[in-house]
Amino acid sequence: MQSLNGQVAVVTGGNSGIGKATARLFARQKAQVIITGRRKDVLDNAVEEIGYGAIGIEGDVSDLDHHKKLATEIKDRFGGLDIYVSNAGVIHLSSTEQVTPEDFDLQFDVNARGTFFGVQTLLPLMRDEGRIILISSLAGTVRIK
Length: 145
Hints:
This protein is an alpha/beta fold.
């Protein structure tokens, strides 16, 4: 992997799992890493674990104001963005007949709406040769009986 020295990278859901591992890798490559997550305590712990000057911004990707706040923070502090990793996601596995409207709305709001509006909001901050990475899950291939 080439050095990411001086590049600004945002990883949503960077407080655990694939997101945290990605943020840690970017930070080791000398990128300025900003992670987001919904739970402040978990976010703060992840920032400490990632190290390298990582920054945590609490928020929920299903909340469109979160994207605006994130964009403002990035523009004010760094002037732009080089890498956006849309990683935040939720899943409640259940059979079709057990899915409630609330379950559906939560998953759609985070996984689809949050991804789309995150890209839409942060795209104007992307520098030339910037990268947008959308993470998905194999969970959609799991069969529930």
